[in-house]
Amino acid sequence: MREVGLVVNVEANNAYVQIDRKTACESCKACGLGTSDEKSIIVQAINNIKAQKGDIVELDLESPDVLLAAFIIYGIPLLALILGIFVSYVVMKAINYNSEILMLLTGVVFMIISFIVIRLYEPKLKESKKFSSTVVEIKGKSLI
Question: Which pTM was predicted?
Answer without folding.
Answer: 0.61
